[in-house]
TrEMBL record:
It comes from the Bacteria. It comes from Streptosporangium subroseum. Residues 322-423 form the UDP-glucose/GDP-mannose dehydrogenase C-terminal domain. Catalyzes the conversion of UDP-glucose into UDP-glucuronate, one of the precursors of teichuronic acid. Belongs to the UDP-glucose/GDP-mannose dehydrogenase family. The lineage of its organism: Bacteria, Bacillati, Actinomycetota, Actinomycetes, Streptosporangiales. NAD(+) binds at residues 32, 37, 88, 124, 158, 269, 336. This is UDP-glucose 6-dehydrogenase. PANTHER family: UDP-GLUCOSE 6-DEHYDROGENASE TUAD.
Length: 439
């Protein structure tokens, strides 16, 4: 049977999953409470930057497999499988995740469910959420046990979201029945045929896999950044240290690049929510190390500001600082908890005249931080700068010509916050080059 799918929530995750599942041949109806977002998506205008996605969106709008709505009633009548792609941000003033968007989506959808269906949660949630939502669903759905819940955490990476969705490295599925497993095996049949490993488990294990994966990745990044701190103290070079570690295949080189650390809409809030949930479960000691992981990560931002101030001559007063990058990572326009913007704002608060440039996250940054200045290009943003900071490693920044940039700035001083530039080349062009964790 060709199941009809709905996506509830069309943000980074939902928009990507919508277009990609339609691309795989499913009929998809996607829902959001944000009417403006829905009309843009329906018009083929992707509200986010994600390489390759807009093309897929447009192709599947044109062939009629993909549609958008704001009506829960319509979604309930249409779908055999409803994917939940709601946000789970950090609660203000707390470490815990806010799962109220998921709750409200179930409360809106369930009363219309009078045909058999499967609800599949994809959001990253505190362990225990799936069971709680399953209970709520059972209370509210007129079809009763005909509407069931499964948990299928998502591992896609912004910037590689299309590839990760069409060719995931694994599928994790928490189910409460054989029926749910059978439906999901059909939904993911093409991926399973291609050899994608699938782990079938219970709700809590599926929920935990996602946060455990993010905790591990965050730990790896903070590990190398802790080594950067030691290298700075010992006048050693963390980039060479990282390279040497990477040849050990038990360690590997991925997520081992020292720099300004992690940010974005996932890692920071996920490790904090994980700690909060472990605390509620009485297992807080198991995760106290994540506090340190978080602290190391935040210290990199403070160190970056210190290094920039040092190059500015001890104070930002009267100093023009160019910040290259606003997105939390390259190939994304996502500025949620962006280390680059965090540093830019701190320098501006300390009296620096900050001009930011980002190839795609510029407008998001301007909306969030109208107090900063913005340049139309890297060269324009660098006009008259006393210090340049490379904070998001976009390829176009790595490709910058030190001579050309040198002609724009007032003084040739650069801090490479991502260890992305070739220090020799920049020094040879007369730049005072500094990087985190390096002499
Ligand atoms: N962004 C990623 O790369 C990524 C990767 C893996 C997992 N995740 C997880 O996926 C989830 C979604 O993340 P995101 O980045 O897509 O978030 P997002 O904020 O971009 O998208 C959430 C969407 O849900 C909509 N929404 C809110 N309330 C709603 C409601 N009641 N009914 C319908 N729609 C509603 C919002 O308007 C928004 O469009 C989070 O739990 C996140 O941790 C995200």
């Amino acid at each position: 049977m060709a199941y009809r799918l709905t996506m509830v929530g069309t943000g980074y995750l939902g928009a990507t999953t919508s277009a990609c599942m339609a691309e795989l041949g499913f009929e998809v109806l996607s829902l959001d409470v944000d009417a403006e977002k829905i009309s843009r998506l329906q018009a083929g205008d992707l509200p986010i930057y994600e390489p390759g996605l807009e093309e897929i969106l447009r192709r599947n709008l044109a062939n009629g497999r993909l549609r958008f709505t704001t009506s829960y009633e319509e979604a309930a009548a249409f779908g055999d499988v409803h994917f939940l792609c709601l946000g789970t941000p950090q609660k203000p003033g707390e470490y815990a995740a806010d799962v109220s968007y998921l709750e409200s989506a179930i409360e809106s959808l369930a009363p219309y469910l009078n045909r058999e269906c499967l609800i599949v949660g994809k959001s990253t949630v505190p362990v225990g959420t799936a069971q709680h939502l399953a209970d709520k669903l059972a209370r509210l759905a007129p079809i009763g046990s005909g509407a069931e819940l499964a948990w299928n955490p998502e591992f896609l990476r912004e910037g590689f979201a299309v590839k990760d969705t069409l060719h995931p490295d694994r599928i994790v599925l928490g189910v409460a029945s054989d029926r749910a497993e059978k439906i999901m095996r059909e939904v993911y049949a093409s991926m399973l045929e291609a050899g994608t490993p699938m782990v079938i488990t219970d709700y809590p294990t599926a929920e935990l896999v996602k946060v455990a994966a993010n905790a591990f990745l965050a730990t790896k990044i903070s590990f190398i950044n802790a080594m950067a701190e030691v290298c700075e103290a010992a006048h050693a070079d963390v980039k060479q240290l990282s390279l040497a570690l990477s040849f050990d295949d038990r360690i590997g080189g991925k997520f081992l690049n020292p720099g300004l650390g992690f940010g974005g809409g996932c890692l920071p809030k996920d490790i904090r929510a994980f700690m909060a949930r472990a605390g509620e479960l009485g297992a807080d000691q198991a995760l106290t190390f994540l506090r340190e992981v978080d602290a190391i990560n935040m210290r990199r931002r403070a160190r970056m500001v210190d290094l920039a101030r040092e190059l500015a001559g001890g104070s930002f007063q009267g100093c023009t600082v160019t910040v290259l990058g606003a997105a939390f990572k390259p190939n994304s326009d996502d500025i949620r908890d962006s280390p680059a913007l965090d540093v830019a704002v701190k320098i501006s608060q300390q009296g620096g005249q900050v001009t930011v440039y980002d190839p795609v996250a510029q407008e998001n940054a301007r909306r969030a931080h109208p107090e900063l200045s913005y340049g139309a290009s890297a060269l324009e943003a660098a006009q008259g700068a006393h210090v340049v900071l490379l904070l998001t490693e976009w390829q176009e920044f790595i490709d910058l010509d030190p001579e050309q940039l040198g002609a724009a700035v007032a003084t040739r001083k650069i801090v490479d916050g991502r260890n992305a530039l070739d220090s020799e080349t920049w020094r040879a062009a007369g730049w005072h080059y500094r990087a985190l964790g390096r002499p």
